[in-house]
Every structure is written in structure tokens, then in C-alpha cells.
Amino acid sequence: MAKTSDSRLFHAFRGSLIGIAEALPGISGGTIALIVGVYERLIGGAGHITGAVRRALTDVPTGRGLHRSLEEGRQADWRMLLPLMTGMVAGLLASAKLLAPLVGDHRQYAYAVFFGLVLASLWIPFTGSGRRWSVPDYLLALTVGAAAFWLTSLSLGGAADNPLAIVGSGAVAICALILPGLSGSFLLLALGMYEPTIDAVNERDLGYVGLFALGALFGLAVFVKLLRWLLENHHHLTLVILTGLMAGSLRALWPWQGDEHDRRLYAPDEGIALTLALFAVGFALVAATLVAARRRERRTAAAPVPGPSDRDRTPRGGGRHARVN
Fold first, then answer.
1. In this structure, are residues 257 and 112 in contact, taking their beta carbons and an 8 Å threshold?
2. pTM of this prediction?
3. Regions of the chain with pLDDT less than 50
4. Residue-wise pLDDT tens digits, 203-230
5. Would you say 118 and 145 are in contact if contact means Cβ atoms under 8 Å apart?
6. What is the C-alpha to C-alpha distance for residues 113 and 91, in angstroms, rounded to an integer?
7. 107: Cβ–Cβ under 8 A, 6 or more apart, which residues?
8. 16-25 tens-digit pLDDT
9. Torsions phi, psi of 257, nearest 5?
10. Cβ partners under 8 Å of residue 73, min gap 6
11. Rounded to a whole number, what is the distance in angstroms from the first to the last CA of the chain?
């Protein structure tokens, strides 16, 4: 019993790290999930849950009942998912509580940290395919980056009370779960929806949070599935586009800019030394995270694959005493 309790607490702790990361632009919750070793199970569980919801919505109206939906839901690893999601919510709430006053009162310095976080995280999609970039790849990334640079000069911040904008933001932000290196909070910042979302979480605005969650479910059911298909069938091209998208969207994090209604960029004028120092801190934080992820990947790749001789065997003459894992 104690071992099970410890395991649940450990899952909750790992979930809290993912939740904290989700509130930080530039640090991907997917990257942290990869580092703490729950990425594949988290994505698999999300797939089973959305599959169960989808089957319930299609089977119940046609009279098939909930059998297929419940069967799909049982395939999720709930003993891991429930404490993990509890920890994620707790970490997200705590992180949002700390970040809201920081962004509101010290926007320039907060954006400096965020800029460093995102700039360093560009390394993930840039090197993720394992292929060397060609000239057409650079041209495509440059074109996508230019489009993203222009789009982030616009803002949905003025439409933060628009239900469609809230649902759409949740759908886009959830895509960060499927791709380590892509930050959901960064996408919200690029859309101008970061501060309204953080404020809604801190103020327990259930209407806003409910719409955002609805968008996240829609994103899991549609966008994430599409993104996974693209990564499986056009992996290199998808990462080239994502690299350009993230690079161009860095415009939204330039420390010297107007508010959500004035997205113009300005030349550095004050607090330059502290701004650059905080930028370096953000960059170093993601660099350290990437080094940790790379070391884990190398350890996993170097681990021996269990063979038939390594599997548990039933002792002769005593099947009833065999150990069940």
C-alpha cells in the first residue's frame, strides 16, 4: 500500500512539473513530460479519453449505448493519469498565481525571460527531424516566419471576451502537448490571449475556463490528431514549418513594445542591462532542460532490450505461487 501511495505521489509531482511548465512561455509541457518519462503514456491516455468521448457522442444518439466508449476509456492508465492530472492542475494554478503579477507589473522583464526561453527552444524543431536542412527548407521557414511576424502584430486580446476566441485559443494551445518544444503559453502570448487566460485562472472565472477547456478538448480530438498525422507522414517538413512559425512569433515577446492594443515594437531605451541578463537566464534554463532531455534519451537508447530469457517465468510445479506483476 505504501508503495502504491508513493507511486501516486511521484506521479502527482511529475504532473506538477508539467503544469508549472505549461504556464511558462518557451518551456513546453511536452518537453517536461518527455524528461520525467510520462510523455508517451500521457499522449496515449489523452487519445483514449478523447476516443471515449467521441464514441459516446456518436453511439448514444444512435442507440448503441456506452459499451464501446467505456471500453475505450478503460484502456487509459488511470492509476497514472489521475494523480498526474491532479498535479498538473495544482502546478498550473500555482505558476499562474506567481506569473500574473510579474507579467502585469514588470512586462518588459518578464518578456525578456520568455524571449530567452523560446529562442533556446527553437533548437528542438530545428534538429528534431535528424536531417540537414536544404536551401528550400530555409526559404520555407523564412516565408512562414515572415507570415508569423505579421500575424503577431495583430492581437486577439481585444476579443478576450469573445467565446469563439477563447475556444480557439484553447484548441491551439493544447497542441503543445503533442510536440515537445512547442509551448502552449507561447502560442497564447502570440495570440494576445496569455494575460486574459492567466487572469481567468487566478480569478476562478469558470465561464472563461470552461470555454477554454472545451477548446482544448476540441483541439485534442482534431488538431492533435492532425498534427500527429503530419509528424508521422511529413515529419521533416512539419518541423521546418514549426521552426519558422516559432521564430517569426518571437515578435510577440520583444521586451520593448506597446500593450495589447499597441503591438508596435520600440528600440531598447531603459533597463537594458537587466533585460539582457534576464534574457540570458531564460535561455540558460531551456538549454539545461534540453541537455537533461538529451541525456535521458541517450540512457534510454543505451538500455538493453529485455529478451525472452529476461522475462518472468512461472516456477515449475507451482503455478499458484507464481509472482503476478
1. no
2. 0.64
3. 1-3, 5, 309, 311-325
4. 888 899 999 999 988 887 777 677 777 8
5. no
6. 19
7. 255
8. 888 887 777 7
9. -150, 170
10. 48, 49, 52
11. 15
